[in-house]
């Protein structure tokens, strides 16, 4: 059972801890970390690593998404959680020095997934990690979370998100912050 800290508007724990399902039923404010992995490409630009979410995910199943993301368990911090998710979802070992904080943002939405109302209300820290040594064929994907990963040219990804030419749950604001 996953337990989350309920947080204030600044992402600071309030002292209340709730189970994941209840947090999303009630729309409680909680924390997540997002990591965007980029690499240099042969066009003089960047590629971005996208993961395709598993069809069994409780939100946005089958959508292309951030390289790695996750909710922050009660008592844990943003950075530790980001590093843990990289390892769990993709099998990537990284250090905190490799993660560059790009954005702190608030995400709030509700939708129906698998016939149930899902209310997401989160404070998110968005990180960028540049690594030119990642071979997606050698990644150890967590199949319960990630169906596949792909490298996509950054500019093509921006266009695909803007024009909805791929099934995705990518926030354009985050993607655009990778080059600032």
TrEMBL record:
<keyword id="KW-0378">Hydrolase</keyword>
<dbReference type="InterPro" id="IPR000086">
    <property type="entry name" value="NUDIX_hydrolase_dom"/>
</dbReference>
<feature type="domain" description="Nudix hydrolase">
    <location>
        <begin position="28"/>
        <end position="174"/>
    </location>
</feature>
<dbReference type="InterPro" id="IPR015797">
    <property type="entry name" value="NUDIX_hydrolase-like_dom_sf"/>
</dbReference>
<dbReference type="GO" id="GO:0005737">
    <property type="term" value="C:cytoplasm"/>
</dbReference>
<dbReference type="GO" id="GO:0004452">
    <property type="term" value="F:isopentenyl-diphosphate delta-isomerase activity"/>
</dbReference>
<dbReference type="GO" id="GO:0009240">
    <property type="term" value="P:isopentenyl diphosphate biosynthetic process"/>
</dbReference>
<dbReference type="Pfam" id="PF00293">
    <property type="entry name" value="NUDIX"/>
</dbReference>
<protein>
    <submittedName>
        <fullName>Hydrolase, NUDIX family</fullName>
    </submittedName>
</protein>
<dbReference type="GO" id="GO:0016787">
    <property type="term" value="F:hydrolase activity"/>
</dbReference>
């Amino acid at each position: 059972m996953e337990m989350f800290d309920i947080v204030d508007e600044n992402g600071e724990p309030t002292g209340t801890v709730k189970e994941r399902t209840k947090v999303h039923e009630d729309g409680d404010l909680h924390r997540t970390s997002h990591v965007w992995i980029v690499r240099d490409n042969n066009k003089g630009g960047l590629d971005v690593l996208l993961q395709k979410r598993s069809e069994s995910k409780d939100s946005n199943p089958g959508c292309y998404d951030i390289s790695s993301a996750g909710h922050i368990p009660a008592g844990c911090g943003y950075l530790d959680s980001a590093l843990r998710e990289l390892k769990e979802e993709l099998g990537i070992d990284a250090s905190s020095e490799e993660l560059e904080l790009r954005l702190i943002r608030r995400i709030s939405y509700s939708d129906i997934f698998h016939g149930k109302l899902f209310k997401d209300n989160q404070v998110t820290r968005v990180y960028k990690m540049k690594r030119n040594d990642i071979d997606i064929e050698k990644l150890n994907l967590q199949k319960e979370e990630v169906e596949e990963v792909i490298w996509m040219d950054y500019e093509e990804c921006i266009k695909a998100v803007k024009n909805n030419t791929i099934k995705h749950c990518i926030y354009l604001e985050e993607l655009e912050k990778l080059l600032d």
